[in-house]
């Protein structure tokens, strides 16, 4: 029935109803997505309750209630927050150093053929050596202090950002660059308005990959050579067979990884808000 046969249904009311329906549909879709995203963790927690209810020894795996009690205790005595702060600073510093160098070299080799010929081959040779395999060398050169962890995390985060920055620049549509030349863009304007926006999607993929390698490297570095941090806390707990602290450490690492990836996705959507593929439906 149209508003011609029913005067009460005006175009403005139809528009409001359409917007309302779209909003409700969007909320339902987001709720469904959230339920799907958390379905496996929820099933895991249910299984956790079931298995620790007399099915397996709590010495091998703590109950959820024991884990909550341990978390509260470690927060109250300051152990958890201090080690969490130290681990976070280590990880972010390593990402900042390795990511910055990877971004700069990726931009340089991506834009200049001569730089690619000079730098790309040795970088690729080093990339083929797993960065964690370099741990013994890094420990000998830098000791067990903060420098060795910074170097190791920087190595782990460098390559994904470098490769994706290089790939992002080389994947830019050449016609856009030609258009910039026609409009008389300077080198800086070309970089700001064409090259960087065109490569952002690829660069952010590198950032997300680097975040995963960052936490992985931190776990190894803190477990083997550290006097503080979440990994150190887990190592001490292992020696004392404190499974609740070990499991808590693993959960913290998982949460830190998830939170950092969530932030990276939010930044990616913001930077690429002009791109239809990154806009909310």
How does this model look, in words?
This protein is mainly α. The chain folds into two domains: 11-51; 64-278, MetI-like fold (Orthogonal Bundle). 79% of the residues lie in helices and 0% in strands. α3 (79-111) runs antiparallel to α8 (187-224), α7 crosses α8 (187-224) and α8 runs parallel beside α9.
- Order of helices and strands, N to C? HHHHHHHHHH
What shape does the CA trace take?
flat
CATH-defined architecture of the largest domain:
Orthogonal Bundle
Number of strand segments: 0
Distance between the termini: 28 Å
- Counted up, domains total 2
Structural class: mainly alpha
What's the story with the biggest beta sheet? none
Query: What is the CATH homologous superfamily assignment of the largest domain?
Result: MetI-like
Which CATH class of the largest domain? Mainly Alpha
Question: How many alpha or pi helices?
Answer: 10
Average of the residue pLDDT scores:
84
Please give the share of residues in helix: over 70%
CATH topology of the largest domain: MetI-like fold
Low-confidence stretches: none
Our Rg estimate from Cα atoms comes to: 25 Å
Please report which band the strand proportion falls in: under 5%, 5-15%, 15-25%, 25-35%, 35-45% or over 45%: under 5%
Main location: membrane
GO biological process, one term: alkanesulfonate transmembrane transport
Organism: Pectinatus cerevisiiphilus
Membrane topology: Multi-pass membrane protein
């Amino acid at each position: 029935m149209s508003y011609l046969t029913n005067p009460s249904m005006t175009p403005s009311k139809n528009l409001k109803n359409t917007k309302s329906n779209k909003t409700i549909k969007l909320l339902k879709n987001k709720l469904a997505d959230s339920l799907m995203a958390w379905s496996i963790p929820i099933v895991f927690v249910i299984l956790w309750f079931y298995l620790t209810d007399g099915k397996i020894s709590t010495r091998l795996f703590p109950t959820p209630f024991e884990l909550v009690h341990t978390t509260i205790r470690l927060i109250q005595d300051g152990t958890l927050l201090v080690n969490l702060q130290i681990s976070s600073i280590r990880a972010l510093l390593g990402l900042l150093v390795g990511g910055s160098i990877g971004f700069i070299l990726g931009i340089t080799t991506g834009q200049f053929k001569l730089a690619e010929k000079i730098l790309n081959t040795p970088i690729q040779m080093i990339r083929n050596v797993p960065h964690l395999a370099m741990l013994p060398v890094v420990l000998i050169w830098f000791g067990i202090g903060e420098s060795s962890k910074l170097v190791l995390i920087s190595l782990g985060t460098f390559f994904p950002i470098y490769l994706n920055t290089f790939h992002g620049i080389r994947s830019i549509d050449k016609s856009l660059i030609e258009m910039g030349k026609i409009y008389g863009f300077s080198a800086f304007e070309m970089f700001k308005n064409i090259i960087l926006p065109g490569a952002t999607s690829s660069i952010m993929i590198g950032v997300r990959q680097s975040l995963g390698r960052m936490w992985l490297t931190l776990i190894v570095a803190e477990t083997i050579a550290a006097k503080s941090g979440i990994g150190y806390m887990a190592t001490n707990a292992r020696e004392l067979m404190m499974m609740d602290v070990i499991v808590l450490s693993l959960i913290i690492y998982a949460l830190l990884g998830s939170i950092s990836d969530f932030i990276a996705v939010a930044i990616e959507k913001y930077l690429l808000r002009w791109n239809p593929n990154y806009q909310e439906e």
